[in-house]
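Amino acids appear as letters; backbone shape is given numerically. Here is one record.
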Amino acid sequence: MDLGISKFLADAASHLSAYVIALSIIGGVSMALLQTLKDLLPTRQWFQSYYLKKWMEEGAAEARKNLDNPSVSASKAEQDLLTMAVDGDAAALYDLQIEQLCGQYTAAIQMVLEFPSAHVDLLAVTASQANSADINLVLAGPTVPPTQAFLDARNRVTHQCQRAIDALQITAGFRWKWMLQIASIVLSGVLAWVAMAYGPGTIAANPFSIVVSAILAGFLAPVGKDLLAVLQRARGQ
């Protein structure tokens, strides 16, 4: 193995420019293949549907504990969100970019806060970490005129809902990009092995060279993606 590492480092150093170009090509090809798979298969829908359901289930568990309300349901909260955000079209919501999805969620929450008693599950799940007294006060509805205590509670619940949706956007976006990065590294490893095993033989194929090349090509892949995006914008696509 030491000999393989030494040979890889020597070959890479003596053919540095060719090696970097090859890694860039491998990274670009792997990213193009992943993009094709994303276009052909509803992978983002699957991921975001799974992640939002998991997030809501965790929120429902917190709400049942904090509000002492065992009837809070994540599935009812999700259905309520789908109805208000996209008229029940789940595919339309989950195929959006995470920023747009959370934008629709935020718009729906504004309506929830206007009529909280009609959307108990969605409010409880979204504001699961808010103060239980504040949520109960909001659910009870305002007096005429509304008291300052009610207005303060509603402001705190609104703020907690906004922070919860922001957290959803950040964590879901991070995990989606992380999954794509891992997939890019794995695919780049396969392409690197093929190139080293059946290519001109500039760099010998061994476990160390393949792993290093896969990781480097995986990190170069987003560069290729950005270049492709620039070219598509230039062509007006």
Observations:
- The chain has a mean pLDDT of 85.
- The chain is about 80% helix and 0% strand.
- The radius of gyration is 25 Å.
- The longest helix spans residues 148-198.
